Amino acid sequence: MSELRSSSPFQGIELHVYGYKEDCREKRRIELDTRPAAATRLGIAAARQLIEKGEAEPNVIVSGREMLGQADPVSTMTAREIQRMVPGAVVYTNPTAQVSTLQELRFARETARAQGLDYLVSIGWGIHTPRIETLGKKVFGPTWWDRLCRREPPTIAYRSTEEILSTYPNEKNQARYQALINLMHALPPETKWKAYEKKLQWVSKIPFGAQFADQVAKIWRPKAD
Questions:
Q1: Of 14, 15, 21, 61, residue with least CA distance to 224
Q2: For a Cys-Cys bond, which of 72, 116, 142, 168 suits 49, CB 3.0-4.6 Å?
Q3: Along the chain (225 residues), what's the average pLDDT of each consecutive run of 10 residues?
Q4: H helices of 93-187, where?
């Protein structure tokens, strides 16, 4: 289900990932020379804000195998960054899953059910959030098994990274975050990404459109900086 239950904190965070960012600055190296793309790092910062403000418990769900010729699964790399930025966070990963919005949501539902997380929040980049919600309504809707067992599926809410960072600003880093968000919105890759999302948002609404969009993601997806 995708209704908002504002009376209690989110029991888990489903975080969407957006690829890799090379980082060759020696003092910032962690294990490898790769870090998550800026959109993912800002998403982690948004998740941290929710956790620090008591709006969410420190359970984070990320999914995705290796991509773009990298050897490191994107979810494994993102999990390391989460644990660096949010000490004590419990991270659930699926390092063998295809990197697609549909698969990320499916893994989130499976994990929520297995771990007893009844109330999630999905965090994604702003232009991606409408399609996340469209697919989430399908993935988190009650299944025939839910109906047979007379049980409610996990509930999920949808928030954009930009919204969270503006609502729960970190005074020390607020200017830095906003400057980076503004820069990313102005870069050419964002324009290509908007066109991509507009097409797939329409496709995702039609019968079997989500599965078709999943196949498109195997062939091509815009690069997030």
A1: 21
A2: 168
A3: 62 92 47 74 95 96 84 90 95 93 94 95 96 91 68 88 84 77 88 84 75 69 61
A4: 101-115, 129-139, 144-149, 161-167, 174-186
